[in-house]
Amino acid sequence: MPAARRTEGVRKTLPCNGCGVSFELDLPANLDLELHSSNGTLAVTGTGRSLLALDTSNGPITITRAEGTLDARTSNGPISLNDVRLSGASRNVLRTSNGPVTLVGVEGEDGVVVEATTSNGHTAVLAPGYQVTLDRNYFRALKNGTANATLEVRTSNGAITMR
Fold first, then answer.
1. Separation of alpha carbons 87 and 153, rounded Å
2. What average pLDDT does the chain have?
3. How would DSSP label each residue in 50-93?
4. How far does CA 12 lie from the centroid of its chain?
């Protein structure tokens, strides 16, 4: 993206190779977040119970130590969940078209079912306490409760791993 520079009241646009911007926000817990980026990383850490809606067209998405309901989508990048607790009976979505998805320490408030599909990649699950149905391009992992959260995971080109 070109950089804008004002000189004597005239706006000039100059090439800006490698320019970028980064934001780090310290927000109160339990705040719903809706974040969008066209070419960048989205990373959320340490939320209280909240709704997270994250969307980027070219970049990774990382969610760590979060609680609530998730909708995370990227067209070109990996998605990682680490120590995430999904709200009971919630519907959660992770989508990427070109990138792996890694789930580590994903739990439901009162049970969870994870359904994951990849068109061009493998699946792997090592999740004690889950009932697992596993195929090369699909898995379903269930930790039954009275109000199961659902987590739907899709990637076209990438592996899906759950630990």
1. 16
2. 90
3. EEEEEEESSS-EEEEEEEEEEEEEEEES-EEEEEEEEPTT-EEE
4. 38
Name every residue whose Cβ is closer than 8 Å to that of residue 14 and which is 6 or more positions away in sequence.
Answer: 2, 3, 4, 5
Q: Which two tokens stand for residue 126?
A: 């090592």
pLDDT, tens only, 63-115: 999 999 999 999 999 999 999 999 999 999 999 999 999 999 999 999 999 99
DSSP 31: -
Tell me whether residue 9 is in a domain.
Answer: no
Show the tokens assigned to 152.
């739907």
Note down the domain range covering 124.
29-162
Tell me how many domains the chain contains: 1
Task: Output the pLDDT for position 19.
Answer: 74
- 20 falls within a domain: no
88 occurs within a structural domain: yes
- Other CB atoms within a 10 A radius of the CB of residue 128 amount to 6
Q: The dihedral of CA 98, 104, 110, 113: what is its sign?
A: positive
Rounded CA separation 110/158 (Å): 29
Stated pTM of the model: 0.86
Report yes or no on 141 lying in a domain.
yes
User: Of 43, 45, 40, 44, which is closest to residue 20 (Cα–Cα)?
Assistant: 40
